[in-house]
Structure formats: structure tokens, C-alpha cells
Amino acid sequence: MAALFTKIALLLILWGLFLFWWIEWLIYPTSAGTDYKAQAIEDTRSDFLDLNGPYYLMWTLPVFLFAIVALVYLEIRQRYPEGQRRTSELPKWRQLLAKISSALFTQPILVGTPMGILTAIDLLVIALVGFTFLWIFCYPLLPALDLVDATKMKPGIDRWMIKVGRVGTWTGRGWYLLMALLFFPISRGSPILRLVNVPFEHAVRYHRWLGHFSLWILLTHSITFSLHIYYTGGRTTESIWQWKRFGVSNLAGVLSMLAGIVLWVTSLELVRKRFFDVFYITHHMYLLVFAFGCWHVGDFSSFYFLGCVMLFFIDRFLRAVQSRKPVSVLSAQVLPSGLIKLKFPMSPSLTYSALGMIYINVPSVSKFQWHPFSTTSSSLEKQDEMSICIKPQGGWTKNLLKSLTDTETKTKSAGCPLKIFAEGPYSPETDYFLRYKTLVLVAGGVGITPFMAIIRDLLCRYQKGQESIPENVELIWCVPRKTDLGTLRDISPEEIYPEVTTSKLKICVRCFVTRENAGNSNWKENPNKAPAEGGLPLGSEEIVFTGADDQPRKEVTHIGESNLWIAAVIAASTTGFIIMHGIFHIAVVRPNNHSSAPFFFEHGAAHSADAGPQGKPFPTAVTVTLLFVSMFLGVVVFGGAVVLAWMLSKRSLSKTEVAFITSPKKTNSAVAGDLEGNQLSLLDQASIVGGSRPSIAGLFEVVGEKYSGEEELCVLVCGPESLQESVADVCRSRNFKYCNTQFQFYSTSFDL
């Protein structure tokens, strides 16, 4: 009961912090916002931080507090979990909330749009961000334009020129909001994403939308202000190419815009997929966009979005710490179909959900590329290892296959020849699919991998005797060739749960081979008799590498496995940041800048106009640079000290290093548990149709009739965008017809 009240209290605090932060943005362009900031500055300004203190308290601290409280809430929820129950087993009021949640998150509203499949929650997020931006932009702009119309212009000054300048001003100030939001969804271990249970691959879509929007606004701001400065060039001292020593620097803004344009162009899908290394390298120009943007607006205005950016930097620092050392490879299998299965040792305390994914980097293939792969294992089955499957399709995966096959042929190395770095795993905070009685899993090609993990997870839960979990699994898998079906041999239900045949769990597998005729039954017994496109040559043997016996066990481990340690890192980072910034202010800024001098307000924001002994204010570029140094020291030194303490605590509790066992070998034998080697697998119980694509609508009609007594089914799709859109369209059509059984649509994708 105490845990329940604690969670409720923390949720109320989180809602309060969110509303406080959002309301600050709503009053930002108003006279009430001006009065609010003036009063806050008067009440909280100190010699230690001067105006930075009030701005930190108003705009940055709420973001850090939200992240820390969210982590505490997540920790309590993990320690005191609620029992797994289906929607129909919940109290009436919670059933109502569950139905509202389902309508928001699982009902496709728009399908086939340039932005992809949009659910109600997507439209709500777009509307909320769009409304807030338009409010910040239009509320002060429209009266300003009316004032220009009512003002008598001096000779030679055109009204349109003044209006263009006003548009430039408020597009720039509205950009603060977009800059703040832009970094939220791209933090892979973000406590905010975990709190709302948004998978990282879905959050990336929000990042892309915000990226396009923010760069359009940045471009508009740059063009309008450039036009204004150009046409008033003869009457003002401003210049587009001027880096002013004090106040707003136009040249810094131009450089920020140019870096943003390069980043924007190389992020387009055409470039990103064909030239990933170019995309990856140029995407780091976000540092230039951020840095020059801060030099452009000054240190005070940077606090509007500084907290959100720092949370991303903390996440990026933790990722760098995890990925700095390679992990061991327990085994690497290359199947005749070309499929690669990798196994890694994992810290037993590190858990992940069935829809988890892990990023890996293989320097011998590409030093820069990190690719996400869904886990095909369950942390409930083997708590000290995880596995992933890789289907060679693109350039990177084909080069990975080549590096394994070439090395095996030339026999140049002992043990697995790959040096692999890992980052993650990342997964949804809760397994939402567990609350449904029936799961409809639709996969296309390599999209089968997360569903393999789901089936393993369910089998493990039945083995442990868990109740109120899915009882029916309808797996629909579309593959181009027969050889791809061998992946199903990786799962033998009876090996994981011997009583599966007499249990409630029923697994129905339907496979569709779209480019070949599946009429011949011989290949089902050995699907690798036919060569695969991108696979090994006909007649090739399976290749298996295992870890060398002279190598220590280097596990996949991450500080993200502990919510409280992450909260400590965030708290230490923000504390260190503000301490260092205060020290720099006292030691560097104040001796050259009289704090007793007056300050002035512009659009409700306070800017220091303090004059030094010679009557000159302190250079803006230097104050912003000191801000950057404070951020770096806060994250790396103060936050890094907490990470170091965590690493030392892990080392003291770690097990004795375990040695590996064998050298690389080739095998063609049926080994239990190996892909394509187990005779009692999902492939043996699958029904297979060849020669055509399935009708999703027809299949769902059959499934709907089969489970007509159920109120809702979970439909989860993973595969190409065309398949996801087809499934979403069928779900939308059925649900809008008010069928008795609702198809709740979920999707997952690793095309980031």
C-alpha cells in the first residue's frame, strides 16, 4: 500500500513538473511571462550566478527534476510490480482508461502519409507542438504587425521591411521550443521515453519530424532576418557577416544555419541509406548547430533549451562509456541461407523485454556504423547471454557475412574473428503484449526476429507458471525464398517448455513464400538445399565459430540497468554544471563586469548589460564558451565520478572470469538448439503456402472469426513499410466498422 501511494505521489509530481514547464512556454511571449521572469530574477538573482541562476531555475532545473523523479518512479514500479492482468480482469475504471489508451496508441488514423502511419497519439503530439509553436510565434507577432501598419514610417523605410524583421524575430524565438524538444526522442535510454513507454524506434520518428520542422524554421528565421538587415544596411550598423563582441552575433547564426542545412540534406533517406557513413559523420554537425546557436543568442537564452540538450549529452556520455570496450562473442553461426546468429555474454543483472534491441559495431566492417538488431533470446530463458540474428541484405550486413566466410575459408584466426562493440540493450519499459489473450504477429522477411523473442518469452513464462498471459499466438510470416524459413528451426517449444502440448498456449504458424513455389515437400525437411540470394553457395556447410579458450569473458553490461544510478548521474551532472558555472562567473566574469549595473529586458528576457571598469560589458562569446566548459565538466567529471563508482561496485560483485572452450570449426550435423539443426521446431508445425503474397484482409477475417468471442486482439507487425501500411489499413477498416473484435495495432521497426 505504501508503494502504491508513493507511485501516485510521484506521478502527481511528474504531472506538476510537466505542466509547469509547458505553461512557461505558453506565457513566454505574453506580458504575464515578462512579469513572471522579472519577478523570478528579482527573487532569485545572486552574486554567484547573476542572471544565470534565475534562468536555470525557471527553464533548466524542471527538466532535470522531471528526469530524476521519473527514474525514481520507474525503480519503485520495478521493485513493486503489479500482477499481470488482462484488460477484462481490471476494475471498471481501469478498463475505461485502458480503452482510452488503446484508442490513442493503437488505432491507426492516417495510413500512407509522408509521415508514415499516424495514430491518435501521433496526431495529438503534432497538434500540441504545433499549437505551442504557433502561440509563441503568432501571439506577439500579430499585434506587432498591426503596430507597424499604424505607425507612420520615416522616408525611405518600407513597412514590409519592418514586418519581415518582426517575422524573423519571432521565428527565432519559437525555435527555442523546437530545439528543446528535438533532443528528447533521440536519447536512447531516456527516462522520459521509458516513463511513457515509447520504444526508441518510434521516438526516432518524432525526432525526424521535429528535425525537419526546426530546420525549416531556422531557415525561415535566417532568410527573413537577412532580408531585413540587407534592406536596412544603409541605415543600421548591423551586418549579416558580423560577429558582434557583445549581444546577438549574426555571423554565429549564419554558421549555425549552414551547419544545419548540411546536416539536413545528408539526413534525407536517399543519402542516409546509400551513404550511411556520410550521414553518420555529418550528423555530428548538430554540435555546430547547437554551439553556434548558443553563440548567436547568448548564454541567458540558451537556458531555454539547455536542460533538454544536457540530458541528451548525459545519455551520449553513458553510451560512450558502455561502448568503449569490445564484448566477447560466445558463438557466431553462419547458416547456408546466409543468416548470421551471434551470441554474447550478458551481465545477469541486465534484463530486457522481448522487444529489446541492441546496437553493435564491427570496426573491421565499418568504424562508424552502429546498427540495431532485435534480440531473438529472452532474458527469462538464459540470464547470462543474449543472441541476435542478422540477415545479409544491405551493404554492411553483406560485408559482415563476407568477413566471416572469408576468414573461415582462409583459416587465419582462432576463435571468432570479429571484434564487436555493443550498446544497449534498449527495450520498451513494459511488455504491452502480455495483457492480451491472443497475439497476431505479422512479419516480413527478417522482421521475424523480435517475434522469435516473444515466443521464447511466452514459453519461459509458462514454464515459470505465470498466469493471465497470452494463450494464442497467430504467427504470419512472409518470406521471398524457401531458405529463409530455416530461421524457425531456432525455436523448439518443447525444449523450453516440455508441457507445451498440454498447456493453454497454442501457437499457429503460417508461412508464405512469395517468390518460389512451395509445392515440393522435400525442402521443408531441409530448406537449405536451395541456394539463397545473398547466402552461401549451394552445398555449403554451416559455419560455427566459438570463443577462443584464452579469452576472458567480457559481458554486455550497462549502467542503465539501474534506475537509481542513472538518477545519481543526472543529479551529479546538473549539480556539477551549476557549481562550475558559478565558479567561472565569480572568478572570470564578475571581476570584469559590474553586477550592480542595470539590466534591460527584451521580449521579457533579461540580458546583462553590466559594464566593466572601462565601461565595456563582458564578451558574449566568452560567457557562452564558459557555459560549454561547465556542461562538459558537469557531465564528464561529476557525472563520470558516479559512473566510475558504479563500475567499481560492479567489479566487486562480478563473478570470476569464465574461459571459453573451443576453436572455430565447421559442422553439418544437427545440434540441438542450433538454427536449422533441431527437428522439433516451429518449422515442423508450420503451414506453408508458396507462389504469392497473402491477403492480409482475408487472413484477418479468418483470425477474427476464430477469436470472435474476444473483445480485442493484439496485432504486432514488423517488416517493410508497405507491409506495415497494409496491416494498419486492414486494422483501421475493421475497427471503424465496429466489428465485435477490435484489432489493436502495434508496429516495430529497426530501420532507424
Automatic annotation (TrEMBL):
<keyword id="KW-0472">Membrane</keyword>
<keyword id="KW-1133">Transmembrane helix</keyword>
<dbReference type="GO" id="GO:0016491">
    <property type="term" value="F:oxidoreductase activity"/>
</dbReference>
<feature type="transmembrane region" description="Helical">
    <location>
        <begin position="56"/>
        <end position="76"/>
    </location>
</feature>
<dbReference type="InterPro" id="IPR013112">
    <property type="entry name" value="FAD-bd_8"/>
</dbReference>
<keyword id="KW-0812">Transmembrane</keyword>
<feature type="transmembrane region" description="Helical">
    <location>
        <begin position="564"/>
        <end position="588"/>
    </location>
</feature>
<keyword id="KW-0560">Oxidoreductase</keyword>
<dbReference type="InterPro" id="IPR013130">
    <property type="entry name" value="Fe3_Rdtase_TM_dom"/>
</dbReference>
<dbReference type="InterPro" id="IPR017927">
    <property type="entry name" value="FAD-bd_FR_type"/>
</dbReference>
<dbReference type="Pfam" id="PF01794">
    <property type="entry name" value="Ferric_reduct"/>
</dbReference>
<feature type="domain" description="FAD-binding FR-type">
    <location>
        <begin position="322"/>
        <end position="432"/>
    </location>
</feature>
<dbReference type="InterPro" id="IPR039261">
    <property type="entry name" value="FNR_nucleotide-bd"/>
</dbReference>
<dbReference type="Pfam" id="PF08030">
    <property type="entry name" value="NAD_binding_6"/>
</dbReference>
<feature type="transmembrane region" description="Helical">
    <location>
        <begin position="251"/>
        <end position="271"/>
    </location>
</feature>
<protein>
    <recommendedName>
        <fullName>FAD-binding FR-type domain-containing protein</fullName>
    </recommendedName>
</protein>
<dbReference type="InterPro" id="IPR050369">
    <property type="entry name" value="RBOH/FRE"/>
</dbReference>
<dbReference type="GO" id="GO:0016020">
    <property type="term" value="C:membrane"/>
</dbReference>
<dbReference type="InterPro" id="IPR013121">
    <property type="entry name" value="Fe_red_NAD-bd_6"/>
</dbReference>
<feature type="transmembrane region" description="Helical">
    <location>
        <begin position="175"/>
        <end position="197"/>
    </location>
</feature>
<feature type="transmembrane region" description="Helical">
    <location>
        <begin position="626"/>
        <end position="648"/>
    </location>
</feature>
<dbReference type="Pfam" id="PF08022">
    <property type="entry name" value="FAD_binding_8"/>
</dbReference>
<feature type="transmembrane region" description="Helical">
    <location>
        <begin position="209"/>
        <end position="231"/>
    </location>
</feature>
<feature type="transmembrane region" description="Helical">
    <location>
        <begin position="123"/>
        <end position="142"/>
    </location>
</feature>
